[in-house]
Specification:
2 helices, mainly beta, 345 residues, single chain
Length: 345
């Protein structure tokens, strides 16, 4: 195995997550392993353009700058979040005391019988945190992280390791993820230590209010060459969001999100691949019922239409249901149905 599954599904553990301002359902703490990929820390899957497109970071915390992956964030939440889940997903998070969390998750992806899951213990103390995960594919993950202030800005560093005894062999991997921000600049790097093939990172700058410019690169140490160069520009004034990314000077990705009022919003997302014949697009909208319920719909280039329903049961349970089918054959064609359930206490 080239990497544990959770590398592509986990979220940063360096600090608590805040609630997404564009969604009625809050982000779980300390981590949602079953959530769509997020933040530069989980960017090991560079081979697939579609996978890389789905990276959804956690919401920007107060006093923080957005990252490279926040360009087009609102459009992703409208057109991607919730639609890519499998047949079922369950997650439970328990806060045992002020600084210690236990969480577990399980999911059937992409089909009902393709089960996968894990358990995590997470503890934080002041500016430090420790986490350990056990996954059903026989991987054990460990994190040791710290954050602080210095040189007029904020810094963070996380040592991430993974070990597995699958296939009667011991597999071990390790890397350091570090970052520094001082307005109007922010940068993050992934430094390989052992059997991690990629050295990667990005830098973004906010030259004026609501605008973000950035550059990102990925270098493959095994092949001794760059796999990716990418430039981005983004605008987000709270009502309108526009994002553009140019990768390897041939693939253009873009998105537009527009909020009409407190309830209605729409979005458009497109991917123009200069090296491929097939381009991708998705258009859709959402309606916020203002009671913890969100209704969404999406239409994409292969004539598939999707519907998503997000709601809350009390204060501790979040539920998301999605349904997709081909427009030209809605009854006899292939259907995709999924349900996710997250509880916390």
């Amino acid at each position: 195995k080239s990497q544990p599954k959770s590398e592509a599904k986990s979220e940063p553990k360096s600090q608590p997550k805040s609630e997404a301002k564009s969604e009625p359902i809050p982000q779980p703490k300390p981590e949602d392993k079953s959530e769509t990929k997020s933040e530069p820390e989980q960017n090991a899957d560079y081979a697939s353009k579609e996978d890389d497109m789905e990276i959804i970071p956690p919401p920007v915390l107060d006093g923080e700058m957005p990252s490279y992956f926040h360009v087009g964030y609102l459009a992703k939440m409208c057109l991607v979040h919730g639609y890519k889940d499998g047949a079922w997903k369950l997650q439970a998070t328990t806060k045992t005391n002020k600084n210690f969390y236990l969480s577990s998750f399980a999911e059937g992806y992409p089909t009902l019988n393709d089960a996968y899951g894990g358990v995590e213990a997470y503890m934080e103390q002041e500016n430090y945190h420790v986490a350990i995960d056990w996954l059903t594919d026989n991987w054990v993950l460990g994190d040791i992280g710290a954050l602080g202030e210095g040189f007029g800005g904020k810094w963070k560093a996380v040592l991430k390791s993974a070990i597995s005894t699958a296939e009667e062999r011991v597999h071990f991997r390790s890397k350091i993820k570090c970052g520094y921000e001082r307005f109007p600049y922010k940068m993050e790097l992934v430094l390989p230590l052992y059997r991690e093939p990629h050295f990667m990172g990005y830098i973004v700058v906010s030259p004026i209010a609501n605008w973000l410019l950035g550059y990102r690169s990925v270098y493959n140490l095994e092949r001794m060459g760059f796999e990716r160069h990418a430039f981005c520009v983004g605008l987000n004034n709270g009502t309108t969001e526009i994002g553009l990314k140019l990768e390897n000077l041939q693939d253009l990705r873009g998105s537009i999100f527009r909020r009409f009022n407190e309830t209605w919003a729409c979005a458009l997302k497109f991917n123009l691949y200069g090296s491929e014949e097939t381009n991708q697009f998705a258009i859709g909208g959402q309606y916020d019922c203002r009671n913890g319920t969100l209704l969404k719909a999406r239409f994409q280039e292969d004539a598939t239409i999707w519907f998503a329903y997000q709601t809350k049961i009390g204060e501790k349970i979040n539920v998301l249901f999605h349904l997709g089918f081909k427009v030209h054959d809605p009854f006899d064609g292939a259907h995709k149905i999924g349900l996710s359930w997250h509880s916390s206490c």
